[in-house]
């Protein structure tokens, strides 16, 4: 039986992101134009190494203060004012890396100032001071499904009557430590990511990204209507070879659509096995529905990708066109993959998915008027 989906609708009162292409509207426009923000960068930053595709908001090497802090200040300017961090207006911070780049920087130059924000606890403490948040701040970190988990938790807090509004903030910035780790697995290499394409070699790109969403129980034009979460716990990095994990999550979220006309924004990193299993699972559940993926343009924004791409999806719907699969080729795993942009007006919902190391799967249903 598929894992049950949480049908806890929450209004999306505000949402935006910051990528190397700009805010959500600028990022959606760049993707619609087929722009690839990825460029070839030395995998270890100033220490050199192989050239790999990264989409960065500045030099990759960590700075003091941390290079992600000015970007988060820029993003936070759009967050609606509230008593954030209080019991009725809590904050959830989501990241797969937090300040790990600062820890890596400390190993290189031994400057103890890097240690002041190098752990998740220290990074969140810095954010609380910078933004004046109270003590009601939760932290989530579960690889590439992190933002989905944070959004699902926000909906649960609202429906349990424990909060009036919830701010979810996600950020992941590439460091030599992160890029070097993916390079060691050989999935970050010199190739350009081609999501859902049949190829001899899979390739991903990585990107800086940050995003926020404010969720409420109040009516809103955009809503997160349901979440489906499933973890195979099969392997440190891989999935069940039969694709059952993808199928379980796809079946669960499909049961929540209620006849809506949806499109699917897949995870689509450019890896081969996971890309094929995801594409096939969603093609079975949504046989006449376009599947698109944007990491071939944005790069993979890691644990923040679920919220970054949610903000891009909202901006794309508002603009009237959904970007196609950037970097894809005509020979795809399934015929539902959309390489070209398509009009959003014929749809009233979207399925947004993310998948993580070890067979963790997440999907959410975004609905709109």
How do the strands and helices of this protein lay out in sequence?
Elements lengths: L9 E10 L2 E2 H9 L6 E4 L8 E5 L12 H9 L14 E4 L5 H10 L10 H12 L5 E4 L5 H14 L5 E8 L3 H9 L21 E2 L1 E8 L5 E10 L12 H11 L7 E4 L7 H13 L5 E2 L2 H4 L6 H15 L1 E2 L19 E2 L5 E8 L3 E9 L1
Parallel strand pairs: 4-8, 5-6, 5-7, 11-12, 11-15
Antiparallel strand pairs: 1-2, 1-9, 1-10, 3-4, 7-9, 10-16, 13-14, 15-16
Please, could you describe this protein's structure?
- The structure is a single chain.
- This protein folds into 2 domains: 10-216, Peroxisomal Thiolase, Chain A, domain 1 (3-Layer(aba) Sandwich), CATH 3.40.47; 222-368, Thiolase/Chalcone synthase (Peroxisomal Thiolase, Chain A, domain 1).
- Helices cover 29% and strands 23% of the residues.
- The protein has 10 helices and 16 strands.
- The strands form 3 sheets. Strands 1, 2, 5, 6, 7, 9, 10, 11, 12, 15 and 16 form an 11-stranded mixed beta sheet that branches. It has a 3-stranded mixed beta sheet with strand order 3-4-8. A two-stranded antiparallel ribbon has the order 13-14.
- Helix 1 packs across helix 10 (305-319) and helix 7 packs parallel to helix 8 (273-285).
In short:
The chain has 369 residues and is an alpha/beta fold. The protein has helices at residues 24-32, 68-76, 100-109, 120-131, 146-159, 176-184, 244-254, 273-285, 295-298, 305-319; strands at residues 10-19, 22-23, 39-42, 51-55, 91-94, 137-140, 165-172, 206-207, 209-216, 222-231, 262-265, 291-292, 321-322, 342-343, 349-356, 360-368. The strands form 3 sheets. Strands 1, 2, 5, 6, 7, 9, 10, 11, 12, 15 and 16 form an 11-stranded mixed β-sheet that branches. A 3-stranded mixed β-sheet has the order 3-4-8. Strands 13-14 form a two-stranded antiparallel sheet.
């Amino acid at each position: 039986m598929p894992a049950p989906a949480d049908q806890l609708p929450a209004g999306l009162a505000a949402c935006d992101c910051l990528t190397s292409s700009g805010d959500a509207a600028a990022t959606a426009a760049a993707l619609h134009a087929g722009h690839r923000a990825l460029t070839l960068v030395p995998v270890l930053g100033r220490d050199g190494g192989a050239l790999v595709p990264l989409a960065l908001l500045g030099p990759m090497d960590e700075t003091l203060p941390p290079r992600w802090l000015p970007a988060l200040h820029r993003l936070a300017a759009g967050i609606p004012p509230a008593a954030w961090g209080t019991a009725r207006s809590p904050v959830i911070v989501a990241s797969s890396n937090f300040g790990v780049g600062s820890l890596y920087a400390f190993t290189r130059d031994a400057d103890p100032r890097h240690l002041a924000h190098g752990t998740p606890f220290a990074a969140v403490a810095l954010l609380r001071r910078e933004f004046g948040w109270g003590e009601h701040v939760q932290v989530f970190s579960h690889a590439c499904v992190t933002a989905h988990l944070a959004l699902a938790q926000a909906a649960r807090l609202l429906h349990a009557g424990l909060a009036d509004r919830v701010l979810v903030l996600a950020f992941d910035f590439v460091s030599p430590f992160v890029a070097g780790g993916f390079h060691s697995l050989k999935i970050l290499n010199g190739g350009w990511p081609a999501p859902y394409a049949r190829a001899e070699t899979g390739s991903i790109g990585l990107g800086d990204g940050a995003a926020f969403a404010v969720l409420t129980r109040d009516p809103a034009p955009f809503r997160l209507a349901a979440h489906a979460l499933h973890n195979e716990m099969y392997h440190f990095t891989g999935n069940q070879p039969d694709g059952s994990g993808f199928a379980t999550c796809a079946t669960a979220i499909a049961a929540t659509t209620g006849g809506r006309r949806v499109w699917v924004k897949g995870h689509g990193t450019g890896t081969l096995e996971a890309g094929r299993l995801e594409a096939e699972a969603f093609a079975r559940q949504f046989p006449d529905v376009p599947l698109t993926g944007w990491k071939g343009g944005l790069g993979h924004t890691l644990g923040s990708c679920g919220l970054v791409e949610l903000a891009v999806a909202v901006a794309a719907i508002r603009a009237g066109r959904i970007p196609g699969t950037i970097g894809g080729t005509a020979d795809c795993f399934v015929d539902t993959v959309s390489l070209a942009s398509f009009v959003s007006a014929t749809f009233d919902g979207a399925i947004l998915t993310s998948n993580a190391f070890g067979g963790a799967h997440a999907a959410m249903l975004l609905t709109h008027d």
